[in-house]
Amino acid sequence: MRTIYSIIIIVFYLTACSGGSNKSEPEIIKDKIKEDISVTNLAIPDNRFSNTYEIVLFGNSHTAGLGTIIKNLINVGNPYAAVNVVTAGGGFLDNQATKQSREVLLNTKPWTHIILQGQKYSESGAYIYPTAPTKEWIAKAKKNNITPILFPEHPRKGNTEEATRIHLIHTGISASQRACVAPVGLAWDNILAIDPQIPLHSSDGNHASLLGRLFTAYIFYEVITGESADSLPYIEDLNVDEPTQQFLKQFASEAIAANQPCNFES
């Protein structure tokens, strides 16, 4: 085991009262946050082509409502597969209050996939939060032969730079502790660039609407099963019209083709 010392960078902006402004150099503060993490970096277990999918989601409110849609999509895409999806929640991935219960859950069921959402990030970009807790969950999952899928959440409404920044945080995590990275935010950016009025966000401008959850679920469907979301048929009980479903599926598959989520090589 090793101790990870995370560095949090805080940028202070000092504005002069005379009308001009001067910016100080970034102040680096060493925050000794100790996290135990295995030194091993196992290959990503490949559970795509299974007849049994046992999927668990860890994270905060951005995971709400996703599990049911993902299960529905997999059932339609592979009617012969047994599918179980559990949204375990637990909040941010560094949440010590829920760590033990999530560890027990992770170790007591034969999961095939885990979706990990809730890596902290700075909305302003002024802070760099520790990533060791997320890496620890990845390592634990792989040790249990579970495919870890990182979930960089979608951007807030009207924010055109957030998705790329969040995605890069997660690909950085995967670079040192191998995991799949679902290109959720990048896909949202792509579709919003084409159709800025598509209502992917709920009224708070932060969480996903029903349409947004469906779009994100299409991405996870393809990452989990290895099958193209674009090839799914129209699903009437999703309560989304057929042209819109096809539009979302197309953008989900295009985002994955451009940003391969998983490298299963050892």
TrEMBL record:
<dbReference type="InterPro" id="IPR036514">
    <property type="entry name" value="SGNH_hydro_sf"/>
</dbReference>
<protein>
    <recommendedName>
        <fullName>SGNH/GDSL hydrolase family protein</fullName>
    </recommendedName>
</protein>
<dbReference type="GO" id="GO:0016788">
    <property type="term" value="F:hydrolase activity, acting on ester bonds"/>
</dbReference>
